[in-house]
Amino acid sequence: MHRKFNLSAFTSHFIATVILAIKMNHLLFISTIIFLTSCRQSNNNDDSERAEKQTETSTKFEVSQTEQETRNKVIIEKTDSPNFYFSSVEHQADSLLVFYENATDSSLANRIKWEQKFFCAFPSSFKGMQSLFGYDNEIGAAPLYDYPKGENVIQYFSQLESIPDSAYYDKYIRINIDGIWEADNIREAFDFANRLTTDTENACKVLSTFSDKEIKSVFHFIFDGPHPKNKYNEKLYENLKLAIAGQNQRLSRLLTDTYGKLVAEDNGHGH
User: Fold this and answer.
1) How far apart are CA 57 and CA 51, in angstroms?
2) pLDDT by residue for the chain (271 residues), tens digit each?
3) How far is CA 36 from the centre of its chain?
4) What is the spatial distance between Cα 58 and Cα 53, in angstroms, rounded to a whole number?
5) How far apart are CA 39 and CA 257, in angstroms?
6) CA dist., res. 67 & res. 240, Å (int)
């Protein structure tokens, strides 16, 4: 017996199947859209977070840089006065470093300005040099004791060219009066001997204005050390004698007296 084919039922079932498939595809399409949108939002959020972090980092850097510039400005304003008052030896050390760094990283015109500030902030006595560059057994290391920071600052002072000779050599000589060897930064009259041999006329002209006692003190510091009687000092003395003798006989005599006495007192047991 043959079953009659129900076209109407088949058609209804077919249509229902198609509609269901369309709905499922639609849901799949919607799900795909939602997923892609979610990924884009996630990426956008990540990008936003990265941007915010970058902005935050940039802001922190700008604030830090601004704070440093403000700090430098404050130091400069406080030291840019006739008396160059410093609230502490640390304040003086910070100021010197700022002036030194700016002077060594500037154009010629600006370098002269910073060199002048550096010179004015530099100590004016041997005691002042000890406070900034020396070492005390009770207090400990001075602010600019560490190598090579302290040595670089002293060396820069010894090579200044923009300061008038009278002012420059007056300060250079004063930081050596009563000077004694202490190793590290406090030694060899802070390289004043080099100026006496390379700029003899100007250095001797100012040195000759000091008393015999003060001049002998400077010469003593040039050669002072654990064992002053050595080949290095002997050669240095010969070079200084040759240079100074042609400029000032008084200075030449004081040099000979000081060196001779120092060598005679060297008994090999150290400073």
Assistant:
1) 10
2) 444 445 455 455 555 554 554 444 444 444 333 333 333 433 333 333 333 333 333 333 333 444 444 334 334 333 333 357 899 999 999 999 999 999 999 887 789 999 999 999 999 999 999 999 999 999 999 999 999 999 999 999 999 999 999 999 999 999 999 999 998 999 999 999 999 999 999 999 999 999 999 999 999 999 999 999 999 999 999 999 999 999 999 999 999 999 999 999 986 544 5
3) 54
4) 8
5) 89
6) 49
Q: Which residues, 6+ apart, have CB-to-CB distance to 177 below 8 Å?
A: 125, 126, 210, 214, 217, 218
pTM, rounded to two decimals? 0.69
Token pair listed for 39: 């990924």
| Length reported for the chain | 271
Q: What is the DSSP string of 37-59?
A: HHHHHHHHHHHHHHHHHHHHHHH
Which residue bears the tokens 């910073």? 114
What DSSP string describes 154-223?
HHHHHT--SS-HHHHHHHHHHTTTT----BTTB-GGGGHHHHHHHSHHHHHHHHTTS-HHHHHHHHHHHH
